[in-house]
Amino acid sequence: MKPHRRLRRGRRPVRDTRPLKGRRHPPPVGLAGVEVLVVGYFSARQQRYAALMDELADTVTALGARVVGRSVQRRGVSDGGVKAMDRPYSSRTLVSAGKAREIACARAETGAGAVVFLNPLTDHQRNVLAEILGCPVLSAADLRPPPSESG
Known about the structure:
Helices cover about 30% and strands about 15% of the residues. With about 150 residues, it is an alpha/beta fold. Strand 1 (about 35-45), helix 1 (about 50-60) and strand 2 (about 65-75) form a beta-alpha-beta unit. The radius of gyration is 18 Å and the shape is globular. The model is unreliable at about 15-25 (pLDDT under 50).
């Protein structure tokens, strides 16, 4: 029988924050011949967001995919967003709910077979976004080959 976790008074149990032994990568999705949407989330302080999006589009194109659309979410452009500029809009999807719907509509219109985010995504964000968008969701980190473990 599992021992019960002790609750600190009025708080949730402490989460285990130890790093995972190895980074889990999503199953490889062949991008050759696939139409792809690229998405980026940036703070208003990031001035070269267009150049970063161009680099991601070039990387995706080099893998044989065709970029059919781009979407950018900027935080901190309005007065209310300045205070929380470096945080994601949503821990579930990284982007706001409205932007997620906008990306889903763009994916449906273009018939894109995958969506690639410039930002790193957690497994939970990837799963939620894949369910909302109806296609595989990758991050730019997933496009790079995993580091070789020689030692």
